[in-house]
Please model this.
Amino acid sequence: MSVKKLALLLVCLVSILMLVGGACQPVPPGSATPGKGMLTGQVIDNPATARPGTPVNTHPGISITVQKAVPSGSYKLSADSPERVAYQAGDKVAEVVSGADGRFSIELPAGTYFVRGFGGEKVYSDQVFVEIKAGSTTEIKLPLNFGV
Model:
């Protein structure tokens, strides 16, 4: 591929990322549709696997998948502890791409969800459990794992 074509391809990619980034900016709290809430977040390096002393980077262009969290049973941590609900990932309900600054925002019906980011082969985040409340904004970080 010639240098000119590569430069043109890079300019097109940056332009697309800027457009997507503008569409994925956080929505102000209280602006959600009735019965719905906002999920906002940012895709970052996983601090547990980053080299000490290096800044935490953000990641544009990561595909964020949202799945319904379906109750799958209950458990107790000890005999005198309260019963807790266990969840498993259900149907995919939404997908969004992180913007130029690694941020994303999506409106969801109130409920429980699992959120995960994918950035290609061997680039993904752990599954994050979130509860969305009507009229509220829930903010999360999605730390990426590389080559694991």
Notes: Helices lie at 3-23. The longest helix spans residues 3-23.
